Amino acid sequence: MNRQLNELHLQRGRLLERIANQRATLGHAAQPVRASLYKADRLLARVRSLVSYVKQHPSIAGLAVAAMFIVKADRAWRWTKRGFFAWRAWRLVRGRFAELGARAGW
Fold it and tell me: pTM for this one?
């Protein structure tokens, strides 16, 4: 009984050491991804801050849009279309990632 218990403790120790090594390896491998995600998170926070500011000050946004149309209506229309398609693409990609995350159990 004592011998079995010692073997179990030894096996448990080996497994814990193996797990610690795997975590360290995974942490080192994920470093570039972590840096990229940090930058993306900062960008997303700035965009959300900008959206919040525009929601609090809609008159400033209205003036900016009016100025764009007065200066160059065709250029503003082109950028509006690009923005709309970028927004749709973002929503599609975000939805796909949400589906993949749901499948993976995240």
Answer: 0.41
Q: Is 82:89 a contact under the CB 8 Å cutoff?
A: no
Place of tokens 């503003």: 76
Q: Which residues contact 79 (CB under 8 A, 6 or more apart)?
A: 68
Tokens linked to 48: 């959300």
Q: What number of residues does the chain have?
A: 106
Alpha carbon of 35 to those of 27, 42, 73, 102: distances in Å?
12, 11, 40, 24
Ordered by start, the domain boundaries in the chain are 72-106
Query: Would you call 34 exposed, middle or buried from its count of C-beta atoms within 10 A (0-12, 13-18, 19+)?
Result: exposed
The number of helices, as runs of H, and strands, as runs of E, in the chain is 4, 0
H or E stretch including 1?
none
Contact yes or no for 54/61 (Cβ under 8 A)? yes
Dump pLDDT digits (tens) for 63-95. 877 877 777 777 777 888 898 999 899 889 888
